[in-house]
Design a protein that fits this description.
CATH class of one domain: Mainly Alpha
Number of helices: 7
Distance between the termini: 37 Å
Helix content: 40-55%
Strand order of the largest sheet: 1-3-2
Structural class: mainly alpha
Order of helices and strands: HHEHHEEHHH
CATH superfamily of one domain: Winged helix-like DNA-binding domain superfamily/Winged helix DNA-binding domain
Radius of gyration: 19 Å
Largest sheet: 3 strands, antiparallel
Amino acid sequence: MGADHPLETLTTNPGFLLSRVGTAIQTGFKELLNARSLRPLQLSILMLLDTFDGTSQQRLCQAAGIDSGNMVELVDELEALQYAKRTRDPADRRRYIVTITPAGRRTLTKVLEEVQHYTDDFLSPLSDTERRRLTTALEKLYASTSEGRRRAPSQEAGTEPAGSYVSQAAPDDRDP
């Protein structure tokens, strides 16, 4: 094959490199969240609640792209951590309204700071220009994936909260 080392061919393959770098950053990100007993989807929920506090559990499902069965478990855990609170909607007793608690908001702020610091450290070998180029290239690649297409901003005004994304996540999509 001409390669001096068996992995030489792989380590020049963009797909392999993206996979390995993705695994490395995901591992560190999950460790950071695990230190606070959070999962990645729960961080997403807290971010949505911080923006759209007092929203229905169903609306959270739609905005986060999480099926309702999985959402119940995720919100149950956030309640146990005292980061979110779920109450019956007084206008419709069949619905739950989910709010972020002060402890949830403090934790979210701290976690987002830690994520930014972690990301900055991870990307420290790159210059600012290289980071911008990497981000632009990754955005293009992500937009071409089925998940990226599902998460494209809603075209119908008023169907989703501003800044949210529409997703048709399959019921078996689970938070790792």
